[in-house]
Design a protein that fits this description.
Elements lengths: L19 E13 L3 E7 L4 E7 L5 H6 L5 E10 L14 E12 L16 H6 L1 H4 L3 H23 L3 E2 L17 E3 L7 E3 L5 H9 L4 E10 L10 E10 L4 H19 L4 E2 L5 E4 H8 L12 E3 L1 H4 L7 H8 L3 E7 L7 H14 L5 E8 L2 E5 L8 H11 L6 E7 L1 H18 L7 E2 L2 E4 L4 E4 L4 E4 L10
Parallel strand pairs: 3-5, 6-9, 11-18, 12-19
Antiparallel strand pairs: 1-2, 1-4, 2-3, 4-5, 7-8, 9-10, 13-14, 14-17, 15-16, 15-17, 20-21
Length: 465
């Protein structure tokens, strides 16, 4: 190939035995056996075992060289003995007898070991990012990202889409977050805004007469620290199509996502197309979130009307309902035999999350009749219990957990309870990707920080009529 290498460190096999090679890479590991020194040489592609005899003039120098030093070696490719073959390496059947070597880049004492189970603070890892990215998992993630983007590009092009690059320095446009601002040197006192999304530009492309646009677009959003937000910079697949309806968009995105995850998510099953669909209000009711985890089979129910009945005497809930609170419940199936700690821990966890607690009823079936046990069961008549159970499909052996709060909090805490109960009962399916569409979002939401009505997403979406 050139003076630095004739092969990479994943390339040599038994077919190369007896030939000369030049390899360059990082010293990954060294093993000193006294008369022999083994070196695992690593590059972007893989690893090759190299060996040098103590009779070689370079032995003493290599013996002292630190790990992660970059070297170039010349040597002969030989077969390993049967007992030393490493089947986990593509080069595991051979090794290279070092004849000579050069140091291409020496190293000082490393601030963090590149290949170790020891974890370091994010500050150290970012300061020495070039070392952090040598780690196998991170290195593979970077490669995966490149492969996924390449696959997406090819797929979009096969569907007739063209890729465009839109401006990075632009004017402010509301997208649901704050802008990052860049001061203008030529126009003192004025600023550019980094785009939260290429929304306006891609629509200008459509107005210009192009038909199908896509871009792996950088987005810059000065978000708050909520767990479901991505502050700073991220990339998204951005698409736009002319003369289409919602179904046309679904027909493009669903097979694309299915194929991407099927190709790159080894060992996982993927949702079949068409994906499930939920309206926003239904998702918030059933799951308490607009990002539902469908691996969890539990659904939330609204049972406010049950607590408004005259034969339900839980006054604290009734007073809250009069102040516009609602009641949501989550059913935990077949938990009658669970210890008291199961229920207490859920109640404590809810309080840590900010709820006032979780009221609950444990259902027991006696001679075909349902009876309620637990802290709030005494406030229910027999008929109220039966009506409640019929409404939410609860049976003997189940427990029903209740949240009473204003709608926003009721959704949040019931979603938490849904997740925690599923975790405790080991109901969440492993190695599965469950996709869905959530449609018909509200256009606006109240911004608690700025105390004003704000866009809940970009304002360019078609409003419902």
């Amino acid at each position: 190939m050139n003076k630095y290498r004739t092969h990479n460190c994943a390339e040599l096999t038994i077919n190369n035995i007896g030939k000369q090679t030049i390899l360059s890479g990082w010293i990954h590991k060294k093993r000193d056996h006294g008369h022999l020194l083994f070196i695992d040489l690593r590059d972007h592609y893989g690893m090759t075992q190299c060996v040098i005899d103590n009779k070689n003039e370079h032995f003493s120098v290599l013996e002292k060289i630190k790990l992660e030093t970059v070297i170039r070696i010349e040597g002969e490719i030989v077969a390993r003995t049967p007992e030393t073959i490493n089947k986990e390496l593509s080069t595991g059947s051979i090794e290279v007898l070092i004849k000579r070597f050069d140091v291409l880049g020496s190293t000082k004492e490393l601030p963090l070991p590149v290949f170790s189970d020891q974890e370091y603070s994010e500050e150290i890892r970012l300061k020495y990012r070039y070392l952090d990215l040598r780690r196998k998992k991170l290195h593979q993630n970077i490669i995966l990202r490149s492969n996924v983007i390449s696959f997406i590009r090819k797929k979009m092009e096969s569907l007739g889409f063209l890729e465009y690059q839109t401006p990075i320095l632009t004017s402010s446009s509301p997208e649901g977050a704050r802008d990052f601002l860049v001061p203008s040197r030529l126009n003192p006192g004025k600023f550019y805004a980094l785009p939260q999304a290429p929304q306006q530009f891609k629509q200008l492309i459509m107005v210009s007469g192009f038909d199908k646009y896509f871009q792996i677009a950088p987005c810059f959003r000065d978000e708050d620290a909520r767990a479901d937000r991505s502050p700073g910079e991220f990339y998204q697949l951005d698409i736009e199509m002319s003369f289409v309806e919602q179904e046309d968009v679904f027909q493009v995105v669903e097979p694309l996502l299915h194929e991407v995850f099927k190709k790159f998510s080894k060992g996982y099953s993927i949702s079949k197309t068409p994906f499930k669909r939920f309206k926003y209000k239904d998702a918030m009711l059933k799951f308490g979130t607009d990002k539902p985890d469908l691996r969890n089979p539990i659904e939330i129910n609204d049972v406010t009307e049950i607590f408004e009945r005259e034969d339900v005497k839980l006054e604290i809930f009734k007073k809250l309902i009069q102040k516009k609170s609602i009641v949501r419940c989550v059913v935990a199936k077949n938990v009658f035999a669970k210890p008291r700690s199961f229920f207490d821990n859920l109640d404590k966890g809810a309080k840590i999350e900010g709820a006032s607690g979780l009221g609950y009823i444990i259902l027991e079936s006696n001679n075909g009749k349902l009876e309620g046990k637990g802290p709030i069961a005494k406030f229910f008549s027999e008929d109220a219990i039966n009506t409640l159970c019929k409404k939410i499909n609860a049976v003997g052996g189940d427990a029903i957990f209740f949240v009473c709060d204003v709608k926003k909090n009721a959704e949040k805490f019931s979603a938490w309870a849904r997740t925690e109960i599923a975790k405790n009962l080991e109901l969440i399916k492993d190695n599965v990707f469950e996709f869905c569409w959530v449609t018909d979002y509200p256009m606006f939401e109240y911004n608690e920080i700025d105390k004003k009505i704000d866009f809940s997403h970009n304002p360019f979406s078609m409003p419902q009529t």
